[in-house]
Amino acid sequence: MRINCRASWLLAGAVLALSATGARAKPLSATCGPNNDYVIGVAQANFKEPYREHVDHELQRLVKNYPKFKLVIADGQADVNTQVSDVENFRTQQVDLLFISPFESAPLTPVVTSLYKSGTPVIELDRKTTNDQYTSFVGGDNRAIAEQAGRYAASQLPDGGEVAILEGLPSSSPAIERLDGFKAGIATNPKIKLVAVQPVDWMEDKAETVFSAMLQAHPGIRLVYTSNDLAAAGAYIAIKDANKLGQVKIIGTDGLPGPSGGVRSVADGQWAATFVYPTGAAEALDLAKRILIDCASSVPRQVTVPTQLIDQSNAKGLYGKEQF
């Protein structure tokens, strides 16, 4: 059987052309390009928590490096219905991209999914929805950070002792991951006994009330881990009111700068340590640039920002710095 070489070459060329065409994926944004101006909607869980304020501050500070971007930040008011409405409003306004920190994972999933499927890129910050219908997630590894905190706690109590946990909002992904991670970390020291776990919904006043009751029920508690710095502040008040200063170690999570943040509390000797939970603002804005200005056809599904231990060895040197 004779083979027509010219026909074979033509066929091979056609296959290569089709392959090249298929390899050119569409940009993630249909309206991308370096000459346009863009509006990024930010659906923030609330404006009450210091960590949320810190995230907003970082976004507003860093967006100045992107003159083509305008941020519109909405306050979810720690209410799922309000935040759902915020996302729906952003869809009506046809924002070019959405940043969102879901107040609660499950209730925000349908509206985020709908927006994403309509063609709007979605970057989730710090907290996740319950499915994979978003463009990218940016944040720290909550479980790994909490496990590191647990191992630190285990090292602080080499002879063992009673430990308590003040959990965040149980319906949010960070609270679940931090609880599981810390339990895994302290398990490295079999002499430690976890005697109390209770959610405080990230709030200082609730943490104070809950930990006061824990100290009454378990007067032998030697260390408390809190899922955020605000809860750690509440725990400190409870310890002070119980006349147990110096007897109960506090480990926070967030590592917020500023006069009321966790870094100062460690520097002043009120807490043993806190672990930085990064805002991810720089990384999120970089992704937005790649999607909107550079017309990227793909970006990483997850960008993990590393933590940092703040304890007596470095707190004073870090206190007062804008970022570290």
Briefly summarize what is shown.
This protein has helices at 5-23, 50-62, 80-93, 105-117, 142-156, 173-186, 204-217, 229-241, 262-267, 281-293, 315-318, and strands at residues 38-44, 69-75, 97-100, 122-125, 136-139, 161-167, 192-199, 221-226, 249-254, 273-276, 302-304, 309-310. The protein has 324 residues and is an alpha/beta fold.
Task: Describe the protein.
The chain has 324 residues and is α/β, with parallel strands linked by helices. The chain folds into two domains: 38-139 and 279-293, Rossmann fold (3-Layer(aba) Sandwich); 142-277 and 310-318, Rossmann fold (3-Layer(aba) Sandwich). It is 43% helix and 19% strand. It has eleven helices and twelve strands. It has helices at 5-23, 50-62, 80-93, 105-117, 142-156, 173-186, 204-217, 229-241, 262-267, 281-293, 315-318; strands at residues 38-44, 69-75, 97-100, 122-125, 136-139, 161-167, 192-199, 221-226, 249-254, 273-276, 302-304, 309-310. The strands form two sheets. The chain has a six-stranded parallel sheet, with helices on both faces. β1 (38-44), α2 and β2 (69-75) form a beta-alpha-beta unit. α3 packs parallel to α4 and α5 (142-156) runs parallel beside α6. Mean pLDDT is 92; it is low at 1-22.
